[in-house]
């Protein structure tokens, strides 16, 4: 076996990389097209890109994307749990915009990859190295624990299973179910329309400032840097589905959703609550996300992080996410 250390995702064939991602059941954030989009338009300032590829002969069997970050804390949570890493450069896998960390490939080779990652981190001046947003108890979490690395809780991500929309509704509490149905009626009466569009037909010039403004409401300033965000979403191509909610032509909500083999990711959204009528544009967007996921045959709805009260009320369950960092 041999390790390749690459500085651009373009240095490896997309089919080779994606074969490992698919075999490992990793989410959309690990697909070559997503990582390529992030390299072209990084949503978090990255001082360097590193891609580790472990090969058995010519065949890739495991991969890790990692990013050197001198300001590695866009959601402010990392330094709450690792205050000793404040102000120090870190080599992290994956990006902050991925909420489900994996090491695509065979878990038994993780020690080899960790050694290589540590050596690279030291060579490029990182003081810290490791993984963020690791789901507690998954294969990566267990392998890191077996390697003697402790984990610290960052946040939760929210998930639910899907079959049919009526089955989804039947699993909700009476009040939440009634609210979704009432919101649908009220929005329809208020002249609201919903459209699902490919990226190249979506109104990203309207959607981007709405997403930026919504993130700022939750004190996530800079999480979606304007023009960079637009370029990133455009570069995603077929990985993304855009949901536009309009009231008499005015954009009142939009969601950028991502898909992989089994999952539908409600990755980000923007909402304007200054609407005409007693309905919630976010409620419309959420319901349409569930319906569209089901129409695509996806069996898991990934609700991302944050907004725990709404997500719990609407049938999503939390998965604890940990950071696993070590000093170089």
UniProtKB/TrEMBL annotation:
SUPFAM superfamilies: Acyl-CoA N-acyltransferases (Nat) (SSF55729). Residues 176-312 form the BioF2-like acetyltransferase domain. Its EC number is 2.3.1.-. Pfam families: Acetyltransf_6 (PF13480). GO terms for molecular function: acyltransferase activity. Keywords: Acyltransferase, Transferase. This is GNAT family N-acetyltransferase.
